[in-house]
Amino acid sequence: MNDREYAESMLNNLANLRYEREKLVAPLEKKIIALQLQEMELAGELDARIKMAESSAKSAAIVVGETVRGHSLQSVWNKGKSKWDDAGLKEFAKRNPSIMEYYSEGKPYIAIRAYDSLKRENGE
Question: What is the pTM of this model?
Answer without folding.
Answer: 0.49
